[in-house]
Amino acid sequence: MTEDQRDEYTRATEALLLVAEEPLTPNLLAQLFEVSVEVAVQLCEDLREQIEGEGRGFVIQRVAGGYRFATHPDLSRYVERFALDGQSSRLSAAALETLAIIAYKQPVTRAQIAAIRGVNVEAVVRTLEHRGFIAVVDRDEGPGQASLYGTTPLFLERLGLDSLDNLAPLGEFVPGPHVAEALERGLQIDELEDLSIALDEAAGDDSDEVSAHHE
């Protein structure tokens, strides 16, 4: 590949990234340019380094197995103010909790999600499906063949992840053994205090009844 060809492919990559509605995959670029996937990846990586070196307000991000333009992370306060001010498009806490369960437990049925959350999740699942963050990926082999849900490429794109392997390990959010022990010990103390209060109240009621009989 000549230097002129490389320059043309680089400019073409930049133009395609600008108009692409989904992350631009190296496989598609390789087909368009009639080059190897490795060359397509290198073109994207070189363009990404070039843009980062220029200190622009945007970057090229690797997400969902492809590349896309994204705003620079250190400008997020301005972008959020522009995009979210007065908007009601943000997911509710219930939706975020359900989405997290699906992301880490997928494929998973609605019944399994409801068992974990302890509430009905029909409406929340429909909302997430409508927003394109989850989809039916399979059918359960058990009776009724319930729908099994999983996350979509749009989910990865919105979170800026290249694959599910990039999800933060659950261990980071689970308290250590000493914390769990302290919580359990605290609950036991609270239970003993509640039991003591209940016994005192019961004893007081008995004393009142005895006094009433003596009168």
Can you characterise this structure?
By secondary structure, the chain is mostly helical. The protein has three domains: 3-75, Winged helix-like DNA-binding domain superfamily/Winged helix DNA-binding domain (Arc Repressor Mutant, subunit A), CATH 1.10.10.10; 93-172, Orthogonal Bundle (Arc Repressor Mutant, subunit A); 175-215. The chain has helices at 3-19, 26-33, 37-53, 76-84, 93-105, 110-117, 122-130, 153-159, 177-214, and strands at residues 58-63, 66-71, 134-139, 147-151. The strands form two sheets. The protein has a two-stranded antiparallel sheet with strand order 1-2. The protein has a two-stranded antiparallel sheet with strand order 3-4. β1 (58-63) and β2 (66-71) form a beta hairpin. The chain is elongated.
List its salient traits.
215 residues, mainly alpha, Arc Repressor Mutant, subunit A, two-stranded antiparallel ribbon, two-stranded antiparallel sheet, 59% helix
